[in-house]
Records
---
Amino acid sequence: MDLSWIAFLAGLILFFGPHSVRLFAEPWRQARMAAWGEKGWKGRYSLVVGVGFALLLWGFAGVRHEQAALFTLPAGLGLGMRHLMALLMLPACWLIVAYHLPRSHFKVRLGHPMLLATKLWAFAHLLVNHKPVELLLFGSFLLWAVLDFRAARRRPAAAPQSPSWLQTGMALVGGTAFYGAFALWLHPLWLGVSAR
């Protein structure tokens, strides 16, 4: 196993481990928060997740260039799937921005827009990425988002807020701008892969 694979697998563990604590070890999480304080917990959490994300990106970029796809879609179907992926990514970007706008209609009505965005993003990328490392990456994100969304729906909900059309508009405009910036600049910069 080469260094890129080691980095990728370590990144998966370090990224999804903290994100899954609430799913599988909520009493331990509460105990750590009591011992370290909320800021101490969030600081450690962010550090581990940040390191994991960096390793994940670096390892993925190295491994994916060494692999062949497990299967290839016919040309017409493959092009259609790429167009569908691009279409699905736009509402995913709206939901990502809406997560930070608590009175947007997306946040008020859906409750967990970031998890829904993650499911859309992962599913969209599985449509067109068929190398083993790609299936592992996007499949892991999709599985985690499904499990976490189910768990989040079972937790007591916060008091509902009245929706704001201003924040909804901000989510749409900001999400569209993010979509364009990511496709044209951030995606090639981070992964060396054009999103177009």
Note: The radius of gyration is 18 Å.
---
Amino acid sequence: MVGDVLQDLLAKYGSSEGTPSGRISAIWMTAEEGVEEKREQRDARNVAEANGVEFKLWRDEKFFIDDRDLPFTDIKDLADVYTTFRKSLEPLRSRPRATLPVPSSLPPLPPAESIPPQADPFTSPESLSSMIDSLHKPLRPSMDVEEPPKWPSGAKSGHPFSGGEFSARKRLSHLISSGAMADYKDTRNGLLGEDYSTKLSAWLALGCVTARQVHASLVAYEDGNSDVPDAWKAAPGFGKGENPGTAAVRFELLWRDYMRLCTRKFGPRLFHVDGFRSDEASENSDGKRKWRFLDRSGGAGDDPAKTRQVVERFRSGRTGIGLIDASQRELFLTGYTSNRARQNVASFLSSHLGIDWRVGAEWYECMLTDYDLSNNWGNWQYVAGVGNDPRQGRKFNPVKQALDYDKGGEYIKTWVEELRDVDVDGAQDGGRKGEEMLMGLFQAWRLPEKEKERLSLKGVEWVEKPLIRIPFAVGNKAGGGFGGDNRRPSGRGRGYRGRGRGGGRAKRLGEVDRAAKQGLLEEGESSVPAS
């Protein structure tokens, strides 16, 4: 497609004389790692060479550690475990190269009269708003979702930012001056608000700001440089060296690099259902995951029509699991959802429902403002247990996760408006009674019948017939379903240590998993042991 577009442009502007409005003398691209992106680069090069036009492929400078400074020269030597890769580069603070100098000037924009008239039905936008309207025009607002979420009253996007370098640098400065950067390690698992995480991911993905520029700003703040904004000088931790928050940000920036390098190493396997481990799966067919597919019966013996119905409810946030539904609705309406929520959504689709994880990765690709090829697909693999996670098969219990990270249910109430009037007053005080109050919010099927009637939820499909019923015994903190400290996400990057599963329940967990993979669990059946 890119080649066809370039060929058409060169047919009009590529001759030595060109046109009165200009001539194409060169084609430049930035090198990418994805399979389709490399195909486009190859097509562009072929078109340029066929037309006698210069072609240049520029090094991508968005990343934290320059490729020339990696501890290997052959991508085959990239460690298959992130920790091993990270340790080979520590201390991270001293690794990145200096940022490139800011150009003293830029070429002028082409004059308006050089833009040729567009053939019907196309038009040339004359303002930013009209350009955005033109970009939106081919899209269906519903995104082909049968029951698309509606914006809840009073809800605010946690990602209300504009694109561009100016906005990126403004955000970076705010994070430092407000103390949000220093607090990042403690707040990054938040669900509501603007400052619980850096939210630099969209700008990083597009190159509006680079990882090295972020690092350089952190160093200036940590070193207490005199030539920084005055607001930074009053920020907590200014001039006191690296702190847990800035160290954690560097950890995440390196994870983005690692996912990109994994894409280079594994190539098309980024999109294989068996993931980076597809070779292992082929060699050991007995241990191969059995998935539910949209277009055919998979190894789980499922009905694809039934699977498509399940995915429809998953996309629109009508699963019946509060944390999952809140995240899916937020994503649909804002283009963003938190790292913690992404992990749970990926685990829910791939492990609880047993559905081909690529369905979720593709949905995120469609919806995320901060979409990045390698991070999105690599992290979905990671959570689905087919990527480079040394602890394969992790499974998050979204009820336990909601209890840990949405203690008062505010996140779910914000985005699932139907549940706002569920009485959870006093739940944040904790204790067994407080936790019990939240159970109907986290899984609406647990609401008493009178409460369902009061809330007009009687007979609502996702309330009465959730896609899955997850048992959770209040006060039982042991066992299955990752609850605590798993910080590797889907869509962006997180990763430290988790608590693991209760070994004594492994047999029961396996039995339940096998039942889940045979289709949508019926009411009363469990997905994971209580945790």
Note: The chain has a mean pLDDT of 87.
---
Amino acid sequence: MKNTTVLLSTKVLRAFSVGFISIVLPLYLSSLGFSKLEVGLVFTLIIATSATFTMFSHRFAHFIGRRNSLMMFSFITAISSLIMFFTENAIVFVIFTLLSLISVNGTDIGPTFSLENAAFSDSAKGKNPKYFSIYNVFGGIAIAAGSLSVSLPDVYIKDFFLVLFSLSLLSGLLYLMLKGEKKENATKRIVIPEIDRKKINRLAELFSIDSFGGGFTLQAMIAYFFFIRFGLTESYLGYIFFFANVLVISSYFFSYHLSKRIGLVNTMVFTHLPSNVFLILIAFSPTAIIAVIFYLLRMSLAEMDVPPRQAYTMMVIRKRYRNKAAATTTAARMYTQSISPVISGQLMQVVSNGSPFLFGGSLKIIYDLLLFKSFRKIKTVSR
């Protein structure tokens, strides 16, 4: 099996898990009696824990190899999710939820994503931005299917943790098939040249602003918002997030063609900015129907920046520093995003249920403008 096929397969398995976990987790926490603030705090701790693993993922890859690191992270998720399924203790459940390295924002992000993204970039097909779109289309289809699975009748919410165990275990076994990884001298420290370090740090700073804003409106928090504001059940939420992800999948195709015409940075900015206007409008929606319409409009544009962002981050940095670039930018996004959910929960509790959308959307618009100013003239590198 070719590396590209392995990476697409594991992407699908992990993305399917992302699709259902970001819906069932807030509802399960609510069933345990967690308040809005406590739900937000749990999400903050989940993201912070995953960010810490992500920050050191390139070091794991350097010392034990990228393939072994990918296997390790998958098995950590598998073991944690199995304990989440069997435990009846809320504290134990939360502890292993933190260790599970799951994504609660409805998109695939974390230490596994970081290393896999770098591995895909190094593959023959990963050198073409077109294949980043295909890579994300596969993931988008899986996320949509995972979201829809929540709407299946006669399925207990807690059963999804057992599904997470099975998919994570299978992913870990699939990584065994990765080939051609070059062994590096584990004692040799890689010194990153200033020109690459500056690019990595600037991208990390900008992505941090975007993710801090995004942390106010994680998919898990949006599901929670629809649940407490309009009383929508998991069945309705499953359909809403399914259609949202269908729109995301469609947008990936347009993203590739648009980036060919106007460039990677322009595509990232000119699609992301209007999506954040729709995000803000959700806060002022008087009914569930209007809120869902604005949400779907937002999702039709919100992820069009993902393939060009992934491609640009890898292509603007020279090959041997891409593990570091992927780990640093991903961890920066996650650390700043980890701060937002607890603030979001507090805003819901003290100000209004819709206030996180206003705060998050405004910050993401600031990111769009700064990104355009900083990188519109910086070219990619071929090696």
Note: The chain has 16 helices and no strands.
